[in-house]
Structure formats: C-alpha cells, structure tokens
Amino acid sequence: MIKTYRKTATIQAEQFDGSQKMIRKYAHPVPKNVPEPSSNSWVTKNGLFEFHIGDWFISKPDGIYGPINNADFERDNTELPVIPKMVANYIKTAHNYDLSLFEFFRISVQSKKDIDSEWVCKHFELVARAWLDGYQVEDDK
C-alpha cells in the first residue's frame, strides 16, 4: 500500500542571483569524462544541471549540498516560522519540561507576565508550526 509522507528535514538554502561570487562559491569540479559545462552548470551523478537565476543551492545537516530548481524548491520547502524571542524561549523551556503542545497553549493563555499570551493566541497556527517544525527567532527591533 502506498502511503503519503511529509518531509521534515531542516535545510539551509541560498537563492542563486547570477553573480560570479555565487558561481565561484558553488563551483564543482568537472570530471574528465564530462564535456566542459557552462558557468551555470552543476555536475551531478545524473549529468549536468543547468541552473538559472532564482534556482536554489541547498545544504542539509549531513553536509550534502546541491542545486534545485525554483519550482521544485517551492513545492517541497516552506520557510520556518519567525517568532518573537520571548515565545521562542518559552517553547524551548516547555520542550525541556516535556510539556505537550496543548499544555503549552493552556499555560501561555493563562500566563500574563511570562509570555505575551495575546500574541500567542493571535498567532496560534504559527506557534503550532514553530512547535512542530522548528522556528527562526525574530530580529530585535
């Protein structure tokens, strides 16, 4: 039976801007048996990948990186939610105490001084995504 899965690996990605700096940064040695590619080519095990402005270079936790076209990247990846530092600290503490997401919401709604409960209530879907998938902390203003 075929089952459907959602990817959960966290990656880092940089969108290709066409600059020589990025071409040099992501240069890949060309094997002798492959014809000399253009400057916008990447040698993969399946042959040459022609990348264009707007495509992405991804790196995974295991250190493997490579190109992916913009359409595939947008289909397969969603940027981690950005949350305030106070909420991020509260999520971290809740994880350390092995609280459930339900307990986190219950306590955060009841608490008026430790966390901005109004912000959590207003952005509960974003907070739930942050809890489940990870998050980025909002820059200090």
Tell me about this structure:
With 141 residues, the protein is of the alpha+beta class. It has helices spanning 20-25, 70-76, 85-96, 101-110, 117-122, 124-133; strands at residues 12-15, 41-44, 47-50, 56-59, 65-68, 82-83, 136-137. Strands 1-4-5 form a 3-stranded antiparallel sheet. Strands 2-3 form a two-stranded antiparallel sheet. The radius of gyration is 21 Å and the shape is elongated.
Write the layout of secondary structure elements.
Blueprint: E1 12-15, H1 20-25, E2 41-44, E3 47-50, E4 56-59, E5 65-68, H2 70-76, E6 82-83, H3 85-96, H4 101-110, H5 117-122, H6 124-133, E7 136-137
Parallel strand pairs: 6-7
Antiparallel strand pairs: 1-4, 2-3, 4-5
Radius of gyration: 21 Å
Characterize the main sheet. Answer: 3 strands, antiparallel
Strand content: 15-25%
Unreliable residue stretches: none
* H/E element sequence: EHEEEEHEHHHHE
- End-to-end separation in angstroms reads 51 Å
- The count of helical stretches stands at 6
Q: What's the number of extended β-strand segments?
A: 7
